[in-house]
Amino acid sequence: MDKRLNNLNNLRCFESAARHQSYSKAAIELCLSQAAVSQKMRQLEESLNTKLFIRQGRKMTLTECGEKLLAVTQQAFNVLVAGLNDIQSEGIAGSLTITSTPAFTSMWLMPKLHEFSMQYPDVKIRVASSNRFEDLKQNQIDLAIRFGTSVDQKTSSHLICEYFGQDEVYPVCSKKLAEEINFENPQDILKTWLIRLEKQGPYNWQAWFDAAGILGCEKHTQWTEVVSTDIGLSAVNSGHGFTLAAKSLYHEGLESGNLVIPIKIKHPAAVKRYLVFDENSPKKARLQVFMDWLKREMNA
Predict the structure, then answer these.
(1) Would the pTM count as exceeding 0.85?
(2) How far apart, in Å, are the Cα atoms of 175 and each of 182, 238, 256, 258?
(3) pLDDT surpasses 60 at 30
(4) Dihedral, CA atoms, 220, 221, 225, 229, nearest 10 degrees?
């Protein structure tokens, strides 16, 4: 066997460093120190008697030989992973660990999960809700359902980030509150409590005020702050003011008549939806079944 194949561990490190053009990012991905990555790259260059990287500022740019090695390394690793998946493929039956925001988990996923389980009783779902962009590999997560305006930019390049539609954001309140206060025009929303997130993102009240042409909002004092949208919707459902939320989170409340949108002006920023997963997962068949079901339900 070619002695250069003794460098397989260093080649794995090289592929990560070359893909990120950064030793520090490769170190994070591989759970190594930056010094260890640097040492492995020196060893690889010495064994091949070839310069693979050139430092340009903070980036490690590939030489011509480095570009060639990256191409064949990734091709070889893809063939290897495909072969391993073929051996280890688990089929549809088994478990899936899914993460998403607390709001989506409690307001949409959990109320509908029984429908999926009835169709696919052999798939056991574990749900881990979090507002953070969890590391899928480190936390042994198979699928992340993520929302926002820049999910694709924040997703690691070695993961698939699949866009599957968007939701409109509206101010919603209880039917009871809408009957107590006649919201004839957008300005009337300042007559009641408004619920906002402690960490305001792109779906904030100020952007909606600007879109609705509301004046004097800076003088509004009736604010309630919450850590997640599901808590805000719970307060709204009991009659406590308005909150801004994607319609998919309170669709059942609208259908039942408990919640209403008296001021039909949507937020200028829509909530984009993404599925984030490892394309080379041995659970790919199981993942595909769940993702297909999720997309059918959310896009219905």
Answers:
(1) no
(2) 11, 10, 10, 5
(3) yes
(4) -30
